[in-house]
Amino acid sequence: MVNLNSNDFIIEMLKINKTFIGVKVLSDVDLNLVKGEIHGLVGQNGAGKSTLIKILNGVYTSDSGKIIINGKLIDDNENYLNPKQYAISTVFQEFSLIPSLTVGENVFLGIEPTKGFLTDDKYIERETKKILNELKMGEDIDPKEKIKNLGISYCQIVEIAKSLAQKGEILIFDEPTAALSYKETELLFEVMKRLKNKGISIIFISHYLDDIFKICDRVTVLRDGRNVFTDYVKNTKLNDVIKALVGYNTYENNYFKRKKIDKSSNPLLEIKYLKNDTANKLKDIKLNVYKGEIVGVAGLLGSGKTEMLNSIYGFDKKCDKLLKLDGKKIKINSISDARKNGIALIPEDRKKQGLILNFSIRDNILLSILDKLMNFLFFINDTNGNKIVNNLVQKLKIKLENIDQKIKYLSGGNQQKVIIAKTIITNPRVLLLDDPTTGIDIKSKEDIFKIIYDFTQAGNGVILVSSELSELIKYCTRILILKQGSIKNEIDCSGIEKNINEEELLELI
Amino acid sequence: MLNINKFKLRDYSNFVIYIMFILLLLLFSVLLFDKGFLTVNNLMNIAKQSATISIMAIGMTFVLCSGEIDLSIGSNVSLSALITTVLLRDYNIYIAILGGISIGALVGFINGLLVTKVKIPSFLATLGMMSILLGISRWISGLKSIPVTNKVYNFIFGIGRIGNISILLIWTIVALIIGQLVLKKTPFGRKVLATGGNKLAAIYTGIKVDRIKIETLMISGITASLAGMIYAGRLQGARYTLGGADLLTVIAATIIGGTSLFGGEGTVIGSVIGAFILGMVNNGLILLGLSIDQQIIARGFIIILAVSFSISED
Ligand SMILES: Nc1ncnc2c1ncn2[C@@H]1O[C@H](COP(=O)(O)OP(=O)(O)OP(=O)(O)O)[C@@H](O)[C@H]1O
Ligand SMILES: [Mg+2]
């Protein structure tokens, strides 16, 4: 290992400690950033990654510890460290875009260029376009579009554009690729490399270790609020990082077996046809899901993946469809129709579509089964409710203080687990999953797919939309390629160990 | 089994308001000791005066929690009171009570349809409704007041006492208990809070948010009509001006009580205490001997002060 000294560092965080209402989240964490490097920061859900960078940003103040930026000690007493002053720009895990403003207005929020007394809208538009073009998104995102009309992936790209517009010396990305598919991720990496060559330093948080190894110079692993590993990526093996992450040696597991699917009987869910002329135009989708199947759907941004699930689920009402469940025709005109028929969806945007942020963990989970929990006095049966919730918290290994804690204080990945919990307890027959493992660490992802796998083995079915190809390849019995609203290709993997790799799959998309 | 003993702290986390209530009570008790603030009679008076505001605040809590607002309650009060008194005069007490409540529910239902189906923001839909109802009240009453002579009615809705306790306080307590249990203990209440907390997430969870909104507006309509009937009983007559000044008082009471104007958060008990705080302030200011103008100004200050204490930071 090369010895680095203070002169090489643009940021030095020393012995950072942080406690939230009695819970120690960070203990003596050191993190330093070399000028012009890309530094990966990894760790399980709730390890303290986001908290650490929020301290760096002045969103939180640390209980103790030193922060040195560009050789200058940041005063402990300084309540709010102004990130702009130190040329730090950050893409937080939680979005900070204002829905009612346009893309351009958001990108230049707080740094609006002026012409006389007025903001220079022409300039904003032009520059926003320029930045989006760098991300190869100039065609897809209109600077004049309002944020509220954009899906989560585009919002993520706008967040990134916003951080680039600040022209900071230091960039911090907290899981910027969680909501992006392969193509956009690659484009982001191109931009990151270009910035690095210009001498800009980047902290990159991600759960995708392959990405960390692909793009980072050094990597730091946090576990339970401690820095347990920092080294050059070139000196490191993937297994070292995994070991540091989870705290023990992992072993290859053979839990998932792609059994041969029995297609002789009626399919569980039969989509005879599905058309939707509005929005993203779904054209005549036909699809059968058999018992025990996980049907994967791959496609680019805008290929209609989310729209397809929303249409089946009855959220999108302007579609024309014919569905059969167990061979019987079903009518789904609303979400409660879908739920009644045992079709459930995990939506793509956990904050906006999945959670009631000021509800407790418990109340969020129970929200989907309130009527079933009602006792003869019309009250919610708390005893039963608590039992169910505690059970799920254990099964899904949700990291929390207690179940009456507000959900907004959970780490991102743990929030996602709560959504999975609240969907699973409705005992659905068919689960529609829209990127269900967004922001979930590698270990928890395994745990969650075990649950999904067990779910299918009990005679149920899953449609899994994912932007993560490796996930599709690993767990699906069949993969469909969606292109511009039609299914263009189908790869059957049932009964086979592995018959396609990521490159081949990417070719097809 | 009723789990009364398992009431959790989180349902009553808004301590500030209780402290505020007690401090104000102490303050007035000391300041106005000579003027008889702390007599049973005066306290019962405050309770009686606060009954209508409390009951409407309970309905408003549901509406605000679901993320909407109901501005039509003030004129709903006078219309329901007038209809009830007319029915009482021309038919009998049963039809009168049924008619009054039905009017409130119907107004709420129409408000609900306007908000959910025609998709007019509740602020505007109920603002329009406020004006329409007021017009109808003026029209059907010809600006005259209609007296109530039915003894039973006046007992139930106004001057009755059970033991030493005004029947209006009993109305308030019954409404409080039902409201609090419904909001915090039933699936319906939880769905109301979810709808106001994050409408989209509630929809994805399978909650029929339109129905929830219609129902909360109906609850508000019904509580407004109940308040109207109480006015008619207390004053032994109805007039189109009844409840005219109540809208803002009701909203102030709920916000002081810790209910969020933006939905998803609130308690019924907080709103009732908010109503009692405002009632106590009214009473205290009068006993202090302030002129009407001074009272109005002081009230304004106290509302601003109270709200600034009760709005939580996060
Ligand atoms: N404002 C807060 N109040 C209380 N606890 C908090 C708060 N913010 C974070 N925590 C807790 O601190 C711990 C670390 O959270 P943090 O968000 O830093 O995790 P993370 O490493 O970013 O996880 P993820 O990969 O899921 O995003 C978690 O257990 C979380 O519940
Ligand atoms: Mg995080």
Helices and strands in order:
The complex is a heterodimer of chains A (509) and B (314).
Chain A: E1 9-20, E2 23-34, E3 38-43, H1 49-57, E4 64-69, E5 72-73, E6 88-91, H2 103-107, E7 114-115, E8 118-119, H3 121-134, H4 152-165, E9 170-174, H5 182-197, E10 201-205, H6 209-215, E11 218-223, E12 226-232, H7 238-246, E13 269-275, E14 287-289, E15 294-299, H8 305-313, E16 320-325, E17 328-330, H9 335-340, E18 343-346, H10 350-354, H11 361-366, H12 382-395, H13 412-424, E19 430-434, H14 442-457, E20 461-465, H15 469-475, E21 478-483, E22 486-492, H16 502-508
Parallel strand pairs in A: 3-10, 3-11, 6-9, 9-10, 15-20, 15-21, 18-19, 19-20
Antiparallel strand pairs in A: 1-2, 1-4, 4-5, 7-8, 11-12, 13-14, 13-16, 16-17, 21-22
Chain B: H1 15-31, H2 40-65, H3 73-90, H4 93-116, H5 122-141, E1 146-147, H6 151-159, E2 161-162, E3 165-166, H7 167-185, H8 187-197, H9 199-204, H10 209-235, E4 237-238, H11 246-256, H12 268-287, H13 292-310
Antiparallel strand pairs in B: 1-4, 2-3
Helix pairs in contact in B: 1-12, 2-7, 2-8, 2-10, 2-11, 2-12, 3-4, 3-5, 3-10, 4-5, 4-10, 6-10, 7-8, 8-10, 11-12, 12-13
Bound molecules: adenosine-5'-triphosphate and magnesium ion.
Tell me the number of structural domains of chain A.
3
Q: From the structure provided, what is the oligomeric state, counting identical versus distinct chains?
A: heterodimer
Q: What's the CATH topology name of chain B? A: ABC transporter involved in vitamin B12 uptake, BtuC
Stretches of chain A where pLDDT falls below 50 for ≥5 residues?
none
- Tell me the major beta sheet of chain B: 2 strands, antiparallel
Number of helices of chain B: 13
Distance between the termini of chain B: 35 Å
Rg of chain B, rounded, reads: 19 Å
Spans of at least 5 consecutive residues with low confidence of chain B: 1-13
Helix residue percentage of chain B: over 70%
Order of helices and strands of chain B: HHHHHEHEEHHHHEHHH
Strand content of chain B: under 5%
Which term fits the overall shape of chain B? Answer: globular
CATH architecture of the largest domain in chain A: 3-Layer(aba) Sandwich
- Give the chain pair forming the largest contact, with residue counts: A-B, 33 and 27 residues
Average pLDDT of chain A, rounded to a whole number, is 88
CATH top level of chain B is: Mainly Alpha
Query: How many beta-strand runs of chain A?
Result: 22
